[in-house]
Amino acid sequence: MALLELHPDTLESIIASDGIVVVDFWTPWCGPCRHFAPVFEAAASAFPDIDFVKVNTEERWDLAAAAGIRSVPTLMIFREGILVYRQMGAHSESQLTSIISTTRTLNMNEVRAHVEHSLSQYE
């Protein structure tokens, strides 16, 4: 899928999908964000079965705050509604491709079990 336009309340519904969602939190004045933009757009073209979402943190500070964004760019990847990757800083094309490939191979039953175990430690 191409880059998705973000509307109010759509990020949560997009993330909750059964597929993979790659989210780039960025801002227009950020040099590394501008450097990463073409890499992100190329990946969106190369992986049409994945949703790619750009969140301008100046316009959607509410989403940035809810996601705990403290630095841009920040890349988040969700699979089946679960956050499986979060990293600040720009990524190279090969890094992003590798991360996406790894995300595709995750055993989601193991991921869910790990999440449940981690959450149970806080009860």
Automatic annotation (TrEMBL):
Q: Which residues form a coiled coil?
A: none
Q: Sorted alphabetically, which keywords does the UniProt record give?
A: Disulfide bond, Electron transport, Redox-active center, Transport
Q: Write down the Pfam families for this protein, in alphabetical order.
A: Thioredoxin
Instruction: Give yes or no: UniProt keyword Disulfide bond.
Output: yes
Does the record's keyword annotation contain Disulfide bond? yes
Superkingdom assignment? Bacteria
Q: Which part of the chain is the Thioredoxin domain?
A: 1-105
As for family, the record states: Belongs to the thioredoxin family.
Which protein are we looking at?
A: Thioredoxin
Phylogenetic placement of the source organism:
Bacteria, Pseudomonadati, Pseudomonadota, Betaproteobacteria, Burkholderiales
